[in-house]
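Recap from last week: sequence in, structure out.
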Amino acid sequence: MKPPPGSSSVNPETGRYEANGCYWDGETWKSIVVPPETTKQSTRPSAKQLRSMPGMNVTPPPGSHEINPETGRYEASDCYWDGQNWKQIVNLEIATGVTSLATKPRLIAAAVAVAACVLAIGIVIGVVFTPNTPEPAQSLPSTTRHSTPVTTASLSPAELEAASASAAAAAASQTQATAAARARAAEVALDQNRRAMEAQQAAADAQAAKFDRSTYAILNERDYGLLARNPSASKGQKIVVYGYVTQFDSITGSSTFRADTAATPGSNWYDFDLNTIVNFDPKIGANVIAKDIVALYVEVSGTTTYKTTLGANETAPVLTANVIDVVG
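Predicted C-alpha cells:
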C-alpha cells in the first residue's frame, strides 16, 4: 500500500497506517469505525473460546505476574505472554466476545479518536462551504412573532420568458402612463396659459371700452330719476350724464368733485338739480374747474353720506367718470 503523506507509522495491531482516529486506505484518510459493545452479551469467554485463546497454559513469564481470570493468560500493558515473548493484544479477540480489562480503555480511546476525527471533518466542511458573510448588526427586538421564510426556486426557460415578457409589458405600460401624464400636464398648462391670455385680453378690452363713448347708455329724465333713488341696484352700469361742477377745490381733492347732474344736456347751472359725487383719475379731470358744464361718461358706484359745511348729513349718488368732456 502507498504510504500517506507526512510522517506516519503502522499500527502493529491492524497492520495499517493510523492517526487521530483515522486510517489510510492508500488514497485518503478514513474514520475508524469501532463496533459497539453488546451489553446483553456476557464479557466472560466461553470454554471453547478459552481453549482457542493464545497464551493459555504456557510457562509463566519472568517476574511477578498474575493470570487474567477473564482470559486465563498472563497480561500486562495491553500485551499477553505466549510462553516465550510478550505480544500485543489485537482487536480480533474483541470480535469473539472476549474483552479483557486491558482492552476496555483502548476501546474508549478509539471511540474518542473517531469522534474527534468526525468533528474535525465537520469543521473543515463547514469552513469550506460557509459563505464569508459579515456578521449582522444587532437589531432592536421585533414585534413580529413569526417570520415567513423566503424560498427561492429556479425557473424554467418558459417561466423566465413569461417573467421577461411581463416585465417588458409593465415597463411599456409605465412608459405609456408617463407619456399620458405629461400630455395631460401640457394640456393643463396650455389651457391655463390660454385662460390667462383671455383674461388679460378681456381686461384690456374692458379698459379700452371705458374710453369708448359708444359703450355708454343714454337715459331719459325718468330713468335717471329711478336710478338716483337706488344707485346701488344699478352698480356697474355705464351711462351718460351731464352736470354743473359746484365744488372742486382743496377740500374735494384732485380726483373728486361735487356736481349737480341731469340726464339731458343744459347750458345754465339751474338746468341740473341732482347733487352728485364724481370720482375720476386726476389726469382725466386735469382741465376741469368749478362752474364748468361737463358731459360725463360714468359707471354707477353706489351712494355716500357726507357732512356739509352747515353740519348736516347729505346722501348723494357716487359716479366714477372714465371720460369728462367740458362743454360749457
